[in-house]
Every structure is written in C-alpha cells, then in structure tokens.
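Re: weekly structure request thread

Next one in the queue (122 aa):
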Amino acid sequence: MNTNIKTTNITLSASISEYTEKRLNKIAKFLDDDPATQCDIELAKTTEHHKKGDIFKAEIHIVGSGKNLYATAEREDLYAAIDAVRDEILQELNARREKRISFVRRGGARVKAMVKGMWPWK
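Done, posted below.
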C-alpha cells in the first residue's frame, strides 16, 4: 500500500508521521498489503482563530483494486482525529467484507437448493 501524507496549516513532525503510520498498519492488514492500493491522508488545522471546538481534521482516501473508500473526522486533538478516522475507515472495510461474505453464502444456499431440487429421491 502506497501512503501519502499531506498537511494543511500545520507542519508534519516526525512524531505525527510515526503515529499516523502506526495507526495505518491495521488498515493495511485489511487491504492484504496490495501494492496497487493508494492511500492518501490529509491532516489539517481547519481554523487559526478558534480556541475551542473541533479544529483538527483528518481524512483518508483509499483507491485501488476495486476499492474507493473515504472517511473524515474532526476533533479537538489531532491524534484523536487520526484515531477517529481510522475507526471509521475500518468500519467501512469491515462492512464491505461482511457484505461480500453474505453474498457468497447466499449464492451457496441457492446452489444447494438447486441441487436438492434435481434429485427428488432424497
């Protein structure tokens, strides 16, 4: 998985970069470490004049091998925003996985029903 980190209105320090990479390891596990997958991350400070409220934003956009996923989160702390967006994208990935498994199971049930109908002596 190719990862690009973009920052807006903040500087990318080594600690922020390391924290983001550490949090993305779980996402890479869901994507089977496909080298064709592109993951773009944007970390931003939305305003310069607010002292309270949600001022940090994190976005993840994953494209590749039949996937196009996007998640965004705004929080008061940059690290909390990174955690929230990671949880949101993991929830989307898990929902896609469960939907695919459900589709395969329904197909298997239909095949079984057809096979049962073909042999009436049982």
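Strands lie at 2-8, 38-45, 56-64, 67-75. DSSP finds two helices and four strands in the chain.
Next request, please.
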